[in-house]
Amino acid sequence: MIKAVIIDDEPRLREMNQVLLNRNFDEIEVIGTCGSVNEAVELIDQKKPQLLILDIRLTDGNGFTILQKIQPYNYSVIFVTAFNEFAIRAIKFSAIDYLLKPIDEKEFCEAVERAIANINSSKLQEQIETFFNFYERKTQSRKIVLKTAEAINIVDISDIMYCKSDSNYTTFFFRNGDKVMISRGMKEYEELLSDYGFFRPHHSYLVNIQYISKLDKSDGGFLILKEGSEIPVSSRRKKNLIQILENL
Questions:
Q1: Where are the beta strands (DSSP E) in the chain?
Q2: φ/ψ of residue 9, rounded to 5
Q3: Which structural domain, as residue segments, surrounds residue 29?
Q4: Do 112 and 12 share a structural domain?
Q5: Minimal CA–CA distance to 6: which of 36, 119, 23?
Q6: Residues 98, 177: one domain?
Q7: CATH classification at residue 42
Q8: How far apart are CA 150 and CA 118, in angstroms?
Q9: How many domains does the chain have?
Q10: Does one domain contain both 90 and 180?
Q11: Distance between first and last Cα of the chain
């Protein structure tokens, strides 16, 4: 059995989350619920759960304080919040699952299934550390977590050359020749990486500007990257791209 703890300062929501787990996951046992930081720290320390369903905002603090006090990170976490706040950006960078209130049962179940799949991952510690590095702005260098069904990949953003979209999948191409395919659309990564020197020259591509070697304006226009890849440029995005390149 997988041991789970639910932490939320609203009793009704604690009960609802427990009902959802009981109804959909026979392999999960809810071993405790609570509504405050201090109670949560004590409960997790005593019971050693493998899964936390953790509300970000609690009456006596926030869920991140709990994580800082309970280490090592040998448990999966699903954040719950009523606010689409800055923390969500940090959560997306670290590929930790989160749910926005009011909770949708289908999304809840999908998040729990992903969390279960990662319970035994050796990368859980590094994944949560990635979250805190971004959330607390501890370092200038940035990492992003790319999670597949097989692995949790934690990579330097500066090593990503470009991304290619294929329907609901995004493939990341790295300067060392590796690539990783994620079952998420390009739009989410465009929003995350736009502040880190990435530009979307075409609806199917997102490019790290530091790897651009040349903009060839023939045949409608395409980018040539330093390692030789050719990336198409759409006519409506060409003007903005030229402006960015001229300002480098």
A1: 2-7, 28-34, 51-55, 57-58, 61-62, 76-81, 97-100, 143-147, 152-156, 160-166, 169-174, 179-182, 198-202, 205-208, 212-216, 222-225, 230-232
A2: -85, 0
A3: 2-134
A4: yes
A5: 36
A6: no
A7: 3.40.50.2300
A8: 9
A9: 2
A10: no
A11: 55
pTM (2 d.p.)? 0.77
Is 151 inside any structural domain? no
Look up residue 133 and give its two tokens.
Answer: 């590095």
From first to last of its 248 residues, what are the pLDDT tens digits of the chain?
Answer: 999 999 999 999 999 999 999 999 999 999 999 999 999 999 999 999 999 999 999 989 989 999 999 988 889 999 998 876 668 888 988 989 999 999 999 999 999 999 999 888 888 899 998 898 888 876 555 899 999 988 899 999 999 999 999 988 999 999 999 999 999 999 999 999 998 999 999 999 999 999 999 999 877 789 999 999 999 999 889 889 988 888 87
Judge whether 56 and 67 are in contact, CB under 8 Å. no
Which of the listed residues 70, 99, 134 is the one where a domain comes to its end?
Answer: 134
Residues 201 and 92 grouped into a single domain: no
The two three-digit tokens of residue 58, written as one number: 């609690």
Name the residue type at position 192.
L
Give the CA-trace dihedral at 140, 52, 145, 147, to 10 degrees: 180
User: Helices then strands (H, E): number in the chain?
Assistant: 8, 17
